[in-house]
Amino acid sequence: MTTTTATKWLLAAQSPFPCGWRAGTKPDNRTTMRIRMARDNTKSRMPLQRGRILSIEAIQAVQSLKRAKPQEINQVLNFKFLRLLKRDMVAVLRELLRQNNCPLALMVFEEIRKELWYRPQVSLYAEMVTVFANNGFFEEVELLCSYLNSERDFLPELEGFNALFRSLLRFKLVGLVMECYKLMRSLGGEPDRSLYRVLINGLESMGERWQCCIVRWDAQKDFGESLEFLEEEEEEEEVTLSHS
Prior knowledge:
The protein is an all-alpha fold.
């Protein structure tokens, strides 16, 4: 499908009138039914974001992936997704995450990891973990964390780790928190006060004393014996543990 054809198709799909209907004529009952059914069907779908976020090719890839039957997924990945530019591949992944389509997002991410241009980003992992955990895909969260631990040659983004720890603590995934904490330290990451506050206060609130002592010990080595900064009240640093 050419870009021009795709544009016409998208415009036609957005039109409230069926193809062939002319202004000034009165639609029959069947036409009215088709219009109503089309509007009702769109209520259950999240609209694709076009423009600067998604190109026409990326939109087509998302739509093809969502419509594909299980036996057609590999073909769609090969002929629709893997031919995209780097920025479009990442855009497709983020669009699937925005729509909470975790199974397809995982498939797409696994293909992205195979690309020569791929470089690990903790912030992207944190984004995926958050979406997956919010939708109850906890086995996939463990898989993502195992992928992160197997990555090589990437920077320990403190902001990315901060977001990752918040999500894991929110769902009380203590084991994964400590695994990712060890990874961050092994990469040479030096937590700031904000990150230590998230970890220590979060672990303490769950009664995880041993893990909390490990983090406290590192914090004391970095900032001295006094950890008064843990008592500072900042709304953006609070960890909500509302999920069991």
